[in-house]
């Protein structure tokens, strides 16, 4: 079983309980008097389908009626556990959830594919574009790393790939690159990491670092696992 006490109302306690599958009595139970009495709020089988492996329940830090259950899918209820909606993610088997105690729209969820950050689950899409009409992103300032040796260059590429490019590519919210001018080097690679690209009539794209003998380091040439699976670059 898993248990969660509401941070908003400590009398409200949720318990997620597995039962013998033949009897099918498992589900989510709630107590409104700090555990003295209990009633079942949901027998939805999705809530306990991974109980043989793990079982997790979390209550929102700001709203006692918002409850999360992590199972093969991640599920969210806004009515105290009666009805459930599935959260989208990059992978199944959700294991852990952190909700910012000061901002309940800021969460980190962990599944078998890694960790995901969600600032706002009501955001339907993200558009990245340049400020003004000249450039989407003109790329890195090469003078900042012109003196790097091979291992420092490798480290820069690996870190940038992980911090920004993989992060963008793995967001569950669709990200659109509105390319409104120069998209050069890392700027073009940023557009490539987005899920969709729309080019304006003044868009100019290129990898000028190759003229200096530098291999573009953020996935445009070699891609990552997702690209190998989907062949979409
Ligand atoms: C690991 C990642 C690697 C990479 O990203 S490699 C790719 C790096 N990017 C580039 O090589 C592009 C360099 N920039 C250019 O080729 C040109 O610029 C443009 C084609 C984008 C625009 O040309 P124009 O219209 O003639 O403008 P301007 O006078 O060259 O630039 C205006 C101001 O913008 C600064 N600037 C331009 N690109 C960058 C950059 N990539 N990083 C930092 N600053 C940049 C300039 O220095 C200048 O500044 P000031 O007005 O103070 O002289």
TrEMBL record:
It comes from the Eukaryota. One of its GO terms (molecular function) is enoyl-CoA hydratase activity. One of its GO terms (biological process) is fatty acid beta-oxidation. Signal peptide: none annotated. Pathway: Lipid metabolism; fatty acid beta-oxidation. SUPFAM superfamilies: ClpP/crotonase (SSF52096), Sialidases (SSF50939). InterPro entries: ClpP/crotonase-like_dom_sf, Enoyl-CoA_hyd/isom_CS, Enoyl-CoA_hydra/iso, Sialidase_sf, WD40/YVTN_repeat-like_dom_sf. Gene3D superfamilies: 2-enoyl-CoA Hydratase, Chain A, domain 1, YVTN repeat-like/Quinoprotein amine dehydrogenase. It catalyses: (3S)-3-hydroxybutanoyl-CoA = (2E)-butenoyl-CoA + H2O; 2-methylpropenoyl-CoA + H2O = (S)-3-hydroxyisobutanoyl-CoA; 3-hydroxypropanoyl-CoA = acryloyl-CoA + H2O; 3-hydroxyisovaleryl-CoA = 3-methylbut-2-enoyl-CoA + H2O. Belongs to the enoyl-CoA hydratase/isomerase family. Homohexamer; dimer of trimers. This is Enoyl-CoA hydratase, mitochondrial. It comes from Hippocampus comes.
């Amino acid at each position: 079983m898993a248990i969660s006490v509401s941070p908003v109302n400590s009398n409200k306690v949720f318990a997620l309980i597995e039962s013998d599958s033949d009897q099918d009595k498992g589900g989510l139970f709630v107590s409104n008097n700090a555990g003295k009495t209990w009633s079942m709020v949901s027998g939805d089988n999705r809530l306990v389908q991974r109980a043989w492996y793990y079982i997790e329940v979390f209550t929102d830090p700001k709203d006692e009626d918002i409850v999360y259950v992590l199972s093969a899918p991640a599920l969210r209820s806004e009515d105290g556990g009666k009805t459930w909606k599935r959260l989208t993610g990059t992978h199944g088997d959700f294991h852990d959830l952190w909700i910012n105690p000061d901002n309940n729209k800021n969460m980190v969820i962990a599944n078998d594919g890694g960790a995901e950050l969600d600032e706002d689950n009501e955001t339907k899409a993200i558009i990245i574009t340049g400020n003004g009409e000249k450039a989407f992103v003109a790329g890195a300032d090469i003078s900042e790393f012109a003196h790097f040796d091979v291992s420092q260059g490798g480290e820069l590429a690996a870190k940038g790939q992980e911090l920004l490019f993989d992060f963008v590519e793995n967001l569950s919210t669709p990200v659109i690159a509105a390319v409104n001018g120069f998209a050069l080097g890392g700027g073009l690679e940023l557009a490539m990491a987005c899920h969709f690209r729309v080019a304006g009539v003044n868009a100019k794209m290129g990898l000028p670092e190759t003229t200096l003998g530098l291999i573009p380091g953020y996935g445009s040439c070699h891609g990552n696992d997702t690209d190998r699976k989907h062949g979409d670059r």
